[in-house]
Amino acid sequence: MQIQNKTLKTILPLYKEISLLNKMLAVLGWDQNVNLPAKAAQGRADQIAYLTQILTEKWLDPVMKKTVESLKEADGTSGEEKAMIRNLQYASEYYYKIPKDIIIKKSKVSSEAFMAWQKARVENDFPSFQPYLEQIIELNKQIAQHLGYEKNPYDAHLHLHEPGLTTKLCADIFGNIRPRLTQLLSRIQKSEVYRASKRKRPTHDRYQLDYQKQLSEYVLHLMGYDFQAGRMDISAHPFTTTMDRYDVRITTRYDEFDFRECYTSSVHEGGHALYEQGVNPEYDYTPLEGGVSMGIHESQSRFYENMVGRSPAFLQYLMTHFQKYFPKSSISSISELTLYLNEVEPGLIRTKADEVTYNLHIILRFEIENGLLNNKMQVKDLPEIWNSHMKQFLDVEPTDDRDGVLQDVHWSYGEFGYFPTYSLGNLYSAQIAKTLQKEIPMKDPLESGNLGEVHEWLKKNIYHYGSLYWPNELISRVTGEKLNPDYFIEYLTEKYERLYSLT
Amino acid sequence: MQIQNKTLKTILPLYKEISLLNKMLAVLGWDQNVNLPAKAAQGRADQIAYLTQILTEKWLDPVMKKTVESLKEADGTSGEEKAMIRNLQYASEYYYKIPKDIIIKKSKVSSEAFMAWQKARVENDFPSFQPYLEQIIELNKQIAQHLGYEKNPYDAHLHLHEPGLTTKLCADIFGNIRPRLTQLLSRIQKSEVYRASKRKRPTHDRYQLDYQKQLSEYVLHLMGYDFQAGRMDISAHPFTTTMDRYDVRITTRYDEFDFRECYTSSVHEGGHALYEQGVNPEYDYTPLEGGVSMGIHESQSRFYENMVGRSPAFLQYLMTHFQKYFPKSSISSISELTLYLNEVEPGLIRTKADEVTYNLHIILRFEIENGLLNNKMQVKDLPEIWNSHMKQFLDVEPTDDRDGVLQDVHWSYGEFGYFPTYSLGNLYSAQIAKTLQKEIPMKDPLESGNLGEVHEWLKKNIYHYGSLYWPNELISRVTGEKLNPDYFIEYLTEKYERLYSLT
Fold it and tell me: Which residue of B has its CA nearest to A244?
């Protein structure tokens, strides 16, 4: 990749430093989640805070700032140059538009709020977390003012998490899918298969952790995950992190009594990792490196988790391997395995939700974030709001806040606008799968475990481009149209009508 | 700890940044040695180089430099302040006296030399490594000129590794111990026990890695290693690293056919870690944090490795645990276990050497380093020099350079003056043990496994002080006299006369 624009040429070495700092932060963060001894929490937090400060100063360096601000997208002499300039401006907005004291305050408040949240969650004590959340919302309102927005302060935060995303777009999409999801759920719950599966859930099986790991690694190999350029470890909450283009690590977690935890986490994170491992190496250390957005990233993880890992066709292939590792499991047929991995059941916890109910959890969070940033809801009322929404959306009600409003970490980190990208990922994944399916009928690869062709297609059409195309453009290029939630509903309906013998 | 000196007060926040950078480098380095995926070597090297550059710039920051240089040890209003000023000046010498371009060149050449050494070693090809080593020696000569020295350029490098160490001091000590070691070795080799043990070495035992790990962890617990403030992992070459005062990690390695590798490595590194975990917490993030020198550090690791882990009294205690973990081992008596762990046998490899021959390997390296820096030896002649010295010192001769001049990594890193600190550690450990023994007869703790009192004594007399006292002062304070090699020879003689029934 030749760079013609001279200003851009002078920025790239500075950007490489930013890229290196981000990768080192990834190392510190990975180790914090995977290895950290109990007493080392404060020390590691101090290291991360200091490295973050160095990173902030690097963005605010006068030469860097002046040069980035002097560039216009149109100055780029190629699509790649234009995209680099666009991404530089997008990434720098946070540092250039928001006063430094607010950035520092937000980082400090988030750090305190995270600790307060951990304690509040253990003690089921929302009021102790309330003042921290109030501070975060106040800061996020200020941040929205500095970033600017057309109609809704929430837009500024959505755009931070997914370029171009707006409250209106989310509201339209969610307004479209919510009744259709609810209707599908209701059909499932009325089915005989649903009632029967509720009666005979396996409860006494044990799955040796070593074998869970081996089964996951086997599937990751099939997917094309490069273990020479990554590794799999254990953490409380599974995640993927890029320390280098040749060091994309994933984590998983184990439940001795339920192999689904490890299996779906590994495959999900593996999907994220394939994306990062597959970006054009010419983009290394430039603003085009890495996946383009959280929504597109989530589409890749959800594709492998749901459309491969949980698909009846692939599970048909996997069954012999499953039985080799777990000969004593009470799950003894392909259909049992398939139903077990695709069980639909409204529940309290987002991260454990099935494909049908998952987005209802997100819509609830979207409405609350929007309400809070627009002064239509008050933090003190959140537990009640949460519970009544849960009742309304999913017909379940938390008995305490641990399983309700305190269940997610995101708000304590100061993140508003993150949740909707999970739903976008689900929708993108179905739309992409539909296109893929036209070019490569998935039946063969899934039933044979030969996923190489699928991997190559995703690499060529998505991974390779890294952050070159923004989500809207990418999805249009790949599928020929903009985001269309019909594909997701169609995918779900077809899959679950069959699984639950709906008529 | 109250700081009175105003200049020192202004430096400490800057020093904290240096301390944080060093700790982050420790994280990157630990991960590099323990976890790094095969393809990620270059990326990690780039990250480490960049963070090292930030660290160098922090030292060279004009405010930092001016302030450090303006301070005199006498300005300190307490012993702690004086020591901080002394340590600041000691640590900054490398950055302030040596021109930046030489520092950068040395870092670059070392990085290339390390790769060349790895390749040369695999291919048993010393000539391919020769030009790199020549460059390193040339740079080290220049560095010695910039640092300054009284008589011998080697002094400058010895002082970098152990404050106050000189060529003359090493030569005196080594001249003293070499004939005494050779004589003891010769007595051992003539003994009946030696000849008998050579005949019946266990060769077909297998030691399950999990149990090796558990045995090591058990001994580390006895030693007082805090697993809440550290952890044990695996690496090709065992090491200890401090990422934070509450995050002191050790590594070990396993040989399925020989449990000694894991056991002695774990206990050795555990000794280093106890030192770091035991420093006065008031010294955190100041120039007094961490162990004072490589020699004193090695005394703490060797103390646990040899005077605890390999002592007949402790092995008598350990035998029941050993048999619990390894009931099928052909080692079936305490005396067999003791002899197996203390076997004396001249060999080619320093890291596998027993206590009697170990220092002869060091003396050989000392003579070569001295010869090279003073133009009395040429790099091209090293393989011959090495082999003839081995013949002369240990009566063994390498058949190839892999097991000869290419066996150690140190020179490829650019380190001259490192090896002698290993011997200092051995000598210090015997002198310290002698004093400890007067206050706490070691027989009871070793035979009962109750090592708490020993740990407390070392903590109170050595660990606690961190880098407050320089090695000479520390050893005088603890033992009442300066370094005296007689204690080491006396310790060896007594131990091996008994083990080998010498008369």
Answer: B43
